[in-house]
Amino acid sequence: MTAAVGAGATEALTIGRVGVDLYPEQSGVPLAEVRTFAKSLGGTATNVAVAAARLGRRTAVLTKVGPDGFGTYVRAALTEFGVTAEYVGTAPNLLTPVVFCELNPPTDPPLLFYRAPIAPDLTLTPDDVPWDLIDAVPLLWVTGTGVSAEPARGTQRAILERRARRGHTVLDLDYRPMFWPDEATARAEIGGLLDHVNVVVGNRTEVGVVVGTADPDAAADRLLARGVRLAVIKRGAEGVLVATADERWTVPPCRVAVVCGLGAGDGFGGALIHGLLAGWDPYRIATYANAAGALVAARLACADAMPTAAEIEELLRR
To answer: 98-101 and 230-234: which strand pairing?
Structure first.
């Protein structure tokens, strides 16, 4: 399923959310009592691209930032992480999003998003899209957040229709309630993407919203019935369910001491990209991705915390 690429060609293009994450340097206290913060590159699509690049994949992000210092930082950080920043546009009258994290509790930290009146990444239009790359890239990664507002909603739909499930076309459900007026709207908009992708990844809450059941096996059945080739459902401390039309497996969890649960899913996503491009079988992909996510959960920050192949393999050996 993977299209041929030449030396230096982009292997994976992610589309969607970008921002600057500010992490408390004092853990376990309310946000009001935090004194200092550490800055890190953030945003689901961005973190996934960084995670895959850390594993040696040639990645790029299609997104937008504001004409401000944080936008400059985003481009510089992407380049430093080895991610192509060529498709990071600028929304002239908006600010690069900032996200504050409260490490209380560390397993599921509350987030405070500054994305008003609208985030630049939700202003993507067809004029911003590298259509030749959409046609040629072996792996395309889109998110549920990408259809939470116009004009990005229509743009992402047009991208998927053009893509027509070629190669690996992956949907990260990425359901964030603060970006939606209600669950019914999220179910309709994200659910409408299922007919245009061949890989879906999400957790139990996300599949519950999108397909109407949080039961992993039942959710996998509903995803596969929509033409999805590979369903990956993260079950937290119970591991990961990975399902195809013919087989399904449960990958056991990796036990770690959680420092910050944020970014674990993005580390999982980057490793998923790596495994898909490598042509691994589903169980091996999910096992590898599960270990990557566990390593990120044991660290502070998102993009900066993404593991190397050597670190993942070491955890799997243990």
So the answer is: unpaired
Q: Contact, 147 vs 172, CB < 8 A?
A: no
Gap between the Cα atoms of 300 and 258, Å rounded: 9
Helix (H, G, I), strand (E, B) or coil at 271: helix
Q: Is 198 helix (H, G, I), strand (E, B) or coil?
A: coil
| Nearest in space to 105 (alpha carbons), one of 240, 262, 254 | 262
Question: Two tokens at 109?
Answer: 């930290």
Give the residue from 92, 83, 109, 97 showing the smallest Cα distance to 26. Answer: 109
pTM for this predicted structure: 0.93
Q: Please state, in angstroms and rounded to a whole number, the distance separating the CA atoms of residues 3 and 13.
A: 13
Do 291 and 69 touch, CB atoms closer than 8 A? no
Which of 192, 212, 198 lies closest to 140 in space, CA to CA? 198
pLDDT tens digits, one per residue of 26-82: 877 888 898 999 889 999 999 999 999 999 999 999 999 999 999 999 999 999 999
CB-CB contact of 272 with 231 (8 Å): no
In eight-state DSSP terms, residue 254 is P
Bridge partners of 60?
13, 84
Looking up tokens 């691209």 gives: 49
Amino acid at 214: A
Alpha carbon distance 128, 217 (integer Å): 38
